[in-house]
Amino acid sequence: MKVLVSEIEIQAAVSRVAAEIKVQEAGGPLTVIAIMTGSIVFLADLIRKLDMPLRVGVIQTSSYRDGEQRGRLVVNLDMMPDIAGRDVLLVDDIFDTGNTLFEVLNMLDEFQPASVRSAVLMHKIGRQEVSLKPDYVGFEIPDKFVVGYGLDYNDLYRNLPYIGVLEPHDLAEHSK
Ligand code: IMP
Ligand code: MG
């Protein structure tokens, strides 16, 4: 597997994002909502660098493809804590087309939080389909399919401590 971003580079990016969040969200309390499962490792590292009062909750998204149509996003909010009147930070692993973040941010608005900002570990360049931009970005990556540090292919590779690029032969090997 080709390493795109090393463990050391990831930790530097997470520290920088945490420092930006601490300045912006001065004092807290902050309610961190992570989109499962891809953001699980980023979430764990990020919150330990945020020495401020905070709550943590998760939501889950999955997209279902019907025929030729673009995947329909299904969002499960069962495990989300109360966010009414609270300052919320929505956390995801990667900003690709941006549709996930766009739809989830709209959905969270209905619960009337005091504020909502978004943090992503990676921003994949050249793929955006929405005008929205995340408030905090760890690093930008080229338009490649990446795995590791929470991100999967067929639910595999989430446990890699670095971000790797999947080569065509890896894709064929693990398509089952
Ligand atoms: P978006 O809605 O197109 O921005 O997609 C965001 C979601 O797609 C992320 O939360 C990931 O779960 C998934 N995703 C996008 N690109 C990659 C990738 O390169 N590797 C693994 N998952 C990805
Ligand atoms: Mg995801």
Count of helical stretches: 4
| Rg (CA only) | 16 Å
As residue ranges, the low-confidence spans are none
Distance between the termini: 18 Å
Instruction: Tally the structural domains.
Output: 1
Helical content band = 25-40%
CATH class: Alpha Beta
Neighbour order of strands in the largest sheet: 4-3-2-5-6-7
List how many beta strands DSSP finds.
9
Strand content: 25-35%
**CATH architecture title:** 3-Layer(aba) Sandwich
Query: What integer is the average pLDDT?
Result: 94
Describe the structure.
This protein has 176 residues and is α/β, with parallel strands linked by helices. It has one domain (2-174): Rossmann fold. It is 25% helix and 32% strand. It has helices spanning 7-24, 40-48, 99-109, 168-173, and strands at 2-5, 30-36, 54-64, 72-76, 87-95, 115-124, 136-141, 146-147, 163-165. It has a 6-stranded mixed sheet, sandwiched between helices. A 3-stranded antiparallel sheet has the order 1-9-8. β5 (87-95), α3 (99-109) and β6 form a beta-alpha-beta unit. The two termini are 18 Å apart. Magnesium ion binds at residues 35, 38, 92-93.
